[in-house]
């Protein structure tokens, strides 16, 4: 069997809020809560399991999602409709802009726990 990423745990202040936030932006489903986790599964089978932890335990992480052009347009509209600040860069220095890296489009935004979320329409480098 080839090695695949199956799931990762995403620390949040409120697991339901963070899972619902990401699921809404990316037009994904929030799965059934199991134990301390609220899962959101991606199309390639990787599940983000949101877990509520004390705010001081949250270390900011980065999560990047490869989406189609149509999915980007739809997610971008949901981001703008909710008044979420978005950026062209991971250092959050270019607010209100998108990037055009690798011949595609990309942007960054923060989730309710402060994690850096990224959507891109073209993979970086030679990966895919």
* Terminus-to-terminus distance: 20 Å
The CATH fourth-level homologous superfamily = 2,3-Dihydroxybiphenyl 1,2-Dioxygenase, domain 1
What count of domains describes the coordinates? 1
- Summed up, the helix count is 2
Structural category: alpha/beta
Along the chain, the helix and strand elements come as EHEEEHEEE
Unreliable segments of 5+ consecutive residues: none
Helix content: 10-25%
Query: Strand tally, please?
Result: 7
Physical arrangement of strands within the biggest beta sheet: 4-7-6-5
Outline the secondary-structure elements:
Elements: E1 7-12, H1 15-26, E2 37-41, E3 47-52, E4 62-66, H2 69-81, E5 86-87, E6 106-110, E7 116-120
Parallel strand pairs: 1-3, 4-7
Antiparallel strand pairs: 2-3, 5-6, 6-7
What this model shows, in words?
By secondary structure, the chain is of the alpha/beta class. It has one domain: 2,3-Dihydroxybiphenyl 1,2-Dioxygenase, domain 1 (Roll). 20% of the residues lie in helices and 27% in strands. The protein has helices spanning 15-26, 69-81, and strands at residues 7-12, 37-41, 47-52, 62-66, 86-87, 106-110, 116-120. The strands form two sheets. It has a four-stranded mixed beta sheet, covered by helices on one side. It has a three-stranded mixed beta sheet with strand order 1-3-2, with helices on one face. Strand 2 and strand 3 (47-52) form a beta hairpin. The longest helix has 13 residues, at 69-81. It is globular, with a radius of gyration of 15 Å. The protein starts with 6 loop residues before the first strand and ends in an 8-residue tail after the last strand. The mean pLDDT is 96. This is VOC family protein. Pfam families: Glyoxalase. Residues 4-122 form the VOC domain.
